[in-house]
Amino acid sequence: MSGETSLIMIIIGAALVNNVVLSQFLGICSFLGVSSQVKTSASLGGAVIFVMTIASAVANLLYTFILAPLGLDYLQTIVFILVIAALVQIVEMFLKKTSPGLYQALGIFLPLITTNCAVLGVALNNVTDGYNFIESVVSGFGTAVGYTIAIVLLAGIRENIDESDLPAPVKGAPIVLFCAALMGIAFFGFSSLS
Amino acid sequence: MNSSMERIYNGIVKENPVFIMMLGMCPCLAVTTSVTNAIGMGVSTTAVLVASNVVISLVRKIIPDEVRLPAEIVIVASLVTVVQLIMQAYFVALNESLGVYIPLIVVNCIILGRAEAYAMKNDVFPSLFDGIGMGLGFTIGITILAFFRELLGAGTVAGFRVMPSFYKPIDMLVKAPGAFLVLGVIIMVMNAWGISSRQAELVSGDGCVGCAAADSCGAKGKENCEKKEEAKA
After folding, report:
1. What is the ipTM of this complex?
2. Nearest CA in chain A to B179
3. What DSSP state is assigned to residue A75?
């Protein structure tokens, strides 16, 4: 992506064209695991949007003001994963105190996100793409929106599939993977947007 | 040596991380566009896994239980950084095609999973062989997946053309949706043959099933914590 790409293009690119789940394969574990009901998957999506936006911002600040000036950019993997883990803990404690309602909705999903590779992946990709602060936050937000779109759509499909009569070998993971494959083909349509 | 062979057999066949345990799905789907990439990813992951199993097994008695996970993550992240630097120095082309998936080995469930489930509880030697077995199992699993994708999607294996010239490659299989499709077909065939895997648990669980940290984070972690506190009281 070129430097003059507008922020809107970053959002569209991150959410639809390079969808984090369907074309970059990040966050597959939770994509397959937490997509049996629309309601839970939407809550997880909310939590991911929340954490990923904050994590992108913090990771960008750390990289620009600490790692890059000191020439320590090879430490980025270690620093980012620790920051994300700590951040998730802080966000969890903060939510618990300040907005119990939101905590109830997102609570159990927050620790899960620490090991969601999508969050670390976005932080690392932002550095590789050379995004500045605003662009990083926007790209983190866009990616998380893409994740939410994908997981909610899959959950919607799966709720319907549950009712139908499938051949035994296809039950379980295969049918979910086939749905994901068809969604991936559909999302290919967006590649002409970029 | 008998028990070490048993660990290796366990990793490759009985608890194969890709087809039976369904762990490490992200790299498994992302880098299997060609056999070369898959083997590169498999070897890097094996290297990290073996080293982290050994290191964690060595220091397991020093690490306090409360900070177990952060300590493990730091060890794994350091080892991944070492592998990343080696790749940048000696395997430039491979490093470029694997891209962000090399640093992402840190969050590969297999590594933390083995650390938690095996290395934290066992001596160095069994842990070493457990790492080798699991690493080989992962490498073989993703190579099989990559073999079918590359063979049918590009008509080549590891870059060499093997399909007859009249074969028209199915492009889609080496693109993103093909990964889901081929894995789905493989698991479907396994189901039809009656090889049971944990996939049913994976797709209907709470997302923690495949994850290493399940016992200490998320809903189950909270349960465990509460149990511990109750036991103390």
Report:
1. 0.82
2. A181
3. G
